[in-house]
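Batch manifest, entry 17 of 40.
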Amino acid sequence: MKTGRLETIVGIFILIGILCVGYLTVKLGKIDLFGSDNYYLSAHFQSVSGLKKGARVEIAGVPVGAVDEISLDREKQVALVRFKIKKNIILTDDVIASVKTSGLIGDKYIMFSPGGSDMLLENGDVIEETESVLDIEALISKFAFGGV
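Output type: structure tokens
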């Protein structure tokens, strides 16, 4: 009788342990099982050199999302960047997306400069106004070889 009760208690603890590991896997892996609290926008850039998937997206220095995907638009021959933005962030259709650098040679990130329009962006919309990354190497080479 006592071994049956002990086996039941051990089984319950193992089940609780498996549930905890599953919960931590979902939370730490940032997997959205029960719906997402984000929406997605995209933008075309001439160059996104150094920008990586997962890079932060900011408005006024406050993180509001992340870079979800970077690909090449084969038709336009430009970079296509998809952003994952928190649902509580409202952006208008005249927002400007710029590729910025943290520090002198730091990581690249996206900075949104809000506009004043009344038209709101929705899931899947494309940001029209963009500023590509500043190519410091090209500027230095122009300066060094007299192109400036």
